Amino acid sequence: MSEDTTGDESKQPLKERRKQKLIDGFGIYTTDPTSDNLAFIARELVLCTLPHSDPGNVPAWSRKNGNLTLGIQPGFNFKTGKSYGYPYGTIPRLLLVWIVTEILRTKSRHLELGIRLTDFMATLGLNTANGSIGAKRSDARRLREQMERLFRSTISFEYSRKDDARSGKTWLDMQVAPEGTLWWSEKDPDTTTFGSWIVVGEKFYQAVMANPYPLDIRVLRHIKNSALGIDLYTILNREAFRASKEEKPRFMAWEWLHAQTGNECADIKVFRRNSIEQLKQILEVHSGLIVSVQAGRRGQRAGLIISNLSTPSIRAEQFRAEPPVATGIETTPPTLTVVAPTPAPIKPQLKPATIEGFRERYPHLAPDDCKYAFDVWLEGKGEDNQPKHYDKAFLSFASKWIKGKF
């Protein structure tokens, strides 16, 4: 099912809408973001994303990316005796961005919907109170339906683990909003009214506070009609941050991107074609992203290379108290090119004895999570300040990392 939105902008002729989108995109590309453009998404929701289309009447849905599996179970509507259904497409992705952003803004699990959610959706170009409520594809109708689907669902993350001696798994089941009140207008039954609120689950709140990633809401507005475009933006924006920090290019094979997104497209060639089309839309507005297409060769994967000169779309030094002043300097968005294969950087691996020692000391914590934090910490120290003994440095880091984890 397509996730194109409708609203006031849809009344314009197609040619005029495209022209206006190019003009708006050029303004975004050449203008630094302000603090008002800041939004966030949780790390886990970047690593594995929601479905693109409705999975239908199935008991559970899952998506696997390496050793990480995302699972969703829909909530049950006891009034109708049926499932609420699965959150899918663009709307729940944008709702999750709003939820994560509000959690970080308020430092609270209790979130007021009403005006703040309406303003957020309006900023994205979604009309939450349009006159065509009876229309099947009205923004207000889809928003209400996807809110109930998302808020009542349970999202699960499961990490599979294996070393020389044994294998296992770690899981986290998160109910998105175990408490809440939604009020609807009698006159406009698809529009939420003042007094609506949710309380996000404790585990969900902790996951958000632990690893938030910043996004530019203007980029989201530009690609809001595509679930794949939103997924690619969040993934590549994170990879741009890592490439810049590591000062090394990042490589993403098409197979990896296919697994990481919630895309149900079985044909990898079609997925590649659709992804490149969405990438062009992202590059129109993301001035910091420098991406090239790597052609598949014998013994080499095809995919995308994110240059180490890339930067994420939101950086702290870009924030300004006042709107930026136009410089008059025009910048041309980057184009896709085909380049020679570049190997992805290889991270050091922990010795089995080090992993076993970590588990003995901290049986309730995952060594992989600590290693990830340790590698990120090392990236910030630069190549000249890397430890001679990786495992010894890891255990020293772990003794500080575990504080506050219990």
Counted by DSSP, the helix tally is: 13
Uncertain residue ranges: 1-8, 131-135, 319-344
- Helix-strand makeup class: alpha+beta
Q: Roughly what percent helix?
A: 25-40%
Q: What fraction of the residues are assigned to beta strands by DSSP?
A: 15-25%
* Strand arrangement in the largest pleated sheet: 2-3-7-8
Averaging pLDDT over every residue, what do you get?
80
Largest sheet: 4 strands, antiparallel
Using only C-alpha atoms, the radius of gyration works out to: 22 Å
| Terminal-residue CA separation | 44 Å
User: Can you count the beta strands?
Assistant: 15
- Whole-number tally of structural domains: 2
Shape: globular
Order of helical and strand elements? HEHEEEEHEHHEEEEHEHHEHHEEEHHH
Q: How is the topology of this model organized?
A:
Layout: H1 14-30, E1 38-42, H2 43-47, E2 61-65, E3 68-73, E4 76-77, E5 82-83, H3 90-106, E6 110-112, H4 114-123, H5 139-151, E7 154-162, E8 167-175, E9 179-181, E10 197-199, H6 202-210, E11 212-216, H7 217-222, H8 227-246, E12 250-253, H9 254-260, H10 268-283, E13 291-294, E14 303-306, E15 338-339, H11 352-361, H12 367-379, H13 390-401
Parallel strand pairs: 13-15
Antiparallel strand pairs: 1-11, 2-3, 3-7, 4-5, 6-10, 7-8, 9-10, 12-14, 13-14
Helix pairs in contact: 8-10, 12-13
